[in-house]
């Protein structure tokens, strides 16, 4: 009886997914006709994270990349809240609601703060666009993928602005190889972005009103607007006092087995950036985790044997960092590329149409 849809006399298992990002949205969508799905996310929408830098220079881009959860979760329940605690059968939300589960998926990625509603998020992009448009000089702190992609978007769309990128490390985007980092630096400099490596800005001791910033080597930078693009911590702080407190490694990641279950638990899965899978943290890999976990959950929920579960194999490095609307830098296992060829893969649409399609949505703009 169990595992069959209710209309055929079966009883669906209760599946709770915590976190509606890249991984959580896909698994919730994939299992909504196989389980009684509840998605818990602090926002009423899902957002494609890597499209956010384009939305800052072109706010209408966010119309397709900020998507109501209800648009793809047509047969599941949405709880707009933060999860703050879990037991072996329930999740507690910040509003004090207890949600019972048979199976749980943790997909809380990285810590971020974003407004609750989609209109508020779109307004934020309008405001950021205005800030950039009205500034003569822009200071970006942090030369990881976010800082680099933002610097490139501004340099390409607003070539007259003075863009300064300050990065603590000895090279940009440290998780990719030195060759790709050098090519990125060369590209940014060719677009007149001032890149300052091995320097930091003390953000606690500066005032945005005076538009003056001091770097660790004592250099004074004048900039009309500031964007802080330093890394975000893993979204596991809320788990530190819970049932899973001993399942978190020293980097704040959940320890998982090859079936994407939290080690030592039979009914708790973790997917995406929150996991300790030994590979670079990327959205397309978070989606692969989601699909493996969905397959295993379907098997378990229909009474299948544990030894038939699918295993996840970590992937080798494959990263594309966009550089404005046409170019990109790519690091593949055997080669590094920069320019229009990798740009053709990512930079025009930033996989927005593709991601929408994966969620069963029209890849083009939809009217609200
Ligand atoms: C600039 C940039 C460019 C990138 N480019 C690419 C790229 O080209 N290709 C690629 O594959 N990847 C790319 N990535 C990486 C990709 O964005 C991440 O790997 C991906 O977002 C991870 O997905 P996730 O679902 O694990 O986490 P996230 O997408 O971070 O989602 C986590 C979700 O959990 C929610 N959440 C957090 N805490 C709680 C809580 N307590 N209760 C309930 N919900 C909670 C959050 O609100 C969020 O919705 C890029 C990242 C950046 C920053």
Automatic annotation (TrEMBL):
<dbReference type="GO" id="GO:0003957">
    <property type="term" value="F:NAD(P)+ transhydrogenase (Si-specific) activity"/>
</dbReference>
<protein>
    <submittedName>
        <fullName>NADH-dehydrogenase (Ubiquinone)</fullName>
        <ecNumber>1.6.1.1</ecNumber>
    </submittedName>
</protein>
<dbReference type="GO" id="GO:0005737">
    <property type="term" value="C:cytoplasm"/>
</dbReference>
<feature type="domain" description="FAD/NAD(P)-binding">
    <location>
        <begin position="14"/>
        <end position="289"/>
    </location>
</feature>
<comment type="function">
    <text>Putative FAD-dependent oxidoreductase.</text>
</comment>
<keyword id="KW-0560">Oxidoreductase</keyword>
<dbReference type="GO" id="GO:0050660">
    <property type="term" value="F:flavin adenine dinucleotide binding"/>
</dbReference>
<dbReference type="InterPro" id="IPR036188">
    <property type="entry name" value="FAD/NAD-bd_sf"/>
</dbReference>
<dbReference type="GO" id="GO:0004174">
    <property type="term" value="F:electron-transferring-flavoprotein dehydrogenase activity"/>
</dbReference>
<dbReference type="Pfam" id="PF07992">
    <property type="entry name" value="Pyr_redox_2"/>
</dbReference>
<dbReference type="InterPro" id="IPR023753">
    <property type="entry name" value="FAD/NAD-binding_dom"/>
</dbReference>
<keyword id="KW-0830">Ubiquinone</keyword>
């Amino acid at each position: 009886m169990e595992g069959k849809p209710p209309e055929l006399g079966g009883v669906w298992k209760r599946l709770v997914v915590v976190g509606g990002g890249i991984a959580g949205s896909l698994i919730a969508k994939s299992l909504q006709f196989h389980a009684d799905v509840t998605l818990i996310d602090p926002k009423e929408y899902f957002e494609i994270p890597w499209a956010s830098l384009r939305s800052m220079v072109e706010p209408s881009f966010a119309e397709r990349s900020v998507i109501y959860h209800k648009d793809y979760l047509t047969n599941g329940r949405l709880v707009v809240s933060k999860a703050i605690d879990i037991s072996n059968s329930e999740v507690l939300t910040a509003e004090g609601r207890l949600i019972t589960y048979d199976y749980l998926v943790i997909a809380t990625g990285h810590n971020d703060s974003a407004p609750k509603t989609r209109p508020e998020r779109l307004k934020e992009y309008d405001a950021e666009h205005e800030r950039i448009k009205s500034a003569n000089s822009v200071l970006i702190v942090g030369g990881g993928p976010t800082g680099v992609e933002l610097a490139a978007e501004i340099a390409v769309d607003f070539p007259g602005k003075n863009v300064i990128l300050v990065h603590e490390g000895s090279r940009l985007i440290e998780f990719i190889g030195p060759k790709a980092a050098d090519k990125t630096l060369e590209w940014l400099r060719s677009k007149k972005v001032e890149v300052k490596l091995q320097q930091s800005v003390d953000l606690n001791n500066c005032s945005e009103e005076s538009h003056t910033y001091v770097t660790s080597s004592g250099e004074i930078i004048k900039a009309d607007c500031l964007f802080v693009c330093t890394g975000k911590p893993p979204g596991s702080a809320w788990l530190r006092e819970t049932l899973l407190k001993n399942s978190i490694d020293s980097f704040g990641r959940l320890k998982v087995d090859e079936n994407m279950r939290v080690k030592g638990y039979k009914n708790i899965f973790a997917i995406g950036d929150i996991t300790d899978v030994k590979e670079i943290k990327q959205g397309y890999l978070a989606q692969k985790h989601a699909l493996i976990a969905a397959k295993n959950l379907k098997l378990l929920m229909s009474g299948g044997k544990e030894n038939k579960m699918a295993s996840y194999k970590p992937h080798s490095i494959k990263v594309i960092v966009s550089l404005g609307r046409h170019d990109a830098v790519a690091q593949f296992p055997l080669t590094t590329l920069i320019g229009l060829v990798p740009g053709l893969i990512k930079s025009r649409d930033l996989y927005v149409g593709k991601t929408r399609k994966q969620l069963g949505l029209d890849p083009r703009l939809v009217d609200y």
